Amino acid sequence: MEIIKGAGEWAPPAAGAANDWVEHFKVSDLSVGTYCIPAGGVDNQSPHTEDEIYVVTSGRARIVTPSDEAEVGPGAVIFVPAGEEHRFVDITEDLALLVVFGPAYGSRA
After folding, report:
1. Following CA atoms 61, 49, 109, 18 in sequence, which dihedral angle do they give, to the nearest 10 degrees?
2. Residue 39 needs a FRET pair 20 to 30 A away by CA distance; which of 9, 24, 72, 90 works?
3. What is the pLDDT of residues 26-58, one digit of tens each?
4. Helix or strand (DSSP H, E) at 25
5. Which CATH number covers residue 67?
6. In 3D, which of 31, 54, 32, 30 has the Cα closest to residue 43?
């Protein structure tokens, strides 16, 4: 067992950065991290080669994919399959997301 401290907690991005990604835990089959975007910020991520689950721990935004869009806030759980374009937009409150990748982030790159 391992307690993953700090996962999903809001942290402001470094000066000059649009957002912040921190990987907290990684094994071959999955990884866990936190993705933070400040209110009014820009989500500049590209599609990933791994399946992904987001859990909104704080903040509000809208997630947009080629086939759908939805308002999200604390407690929302979002599945994004590998390779699907997706972006958080209209970020009205500092957004903190617990992110789980399967398999581990970057392992299929």
Report:
1. -10
2. 24
3. 999 999 999 999 999 999 999 999 999 999 999
4. strand 20-27
5. 2.60.120.10
6. 54
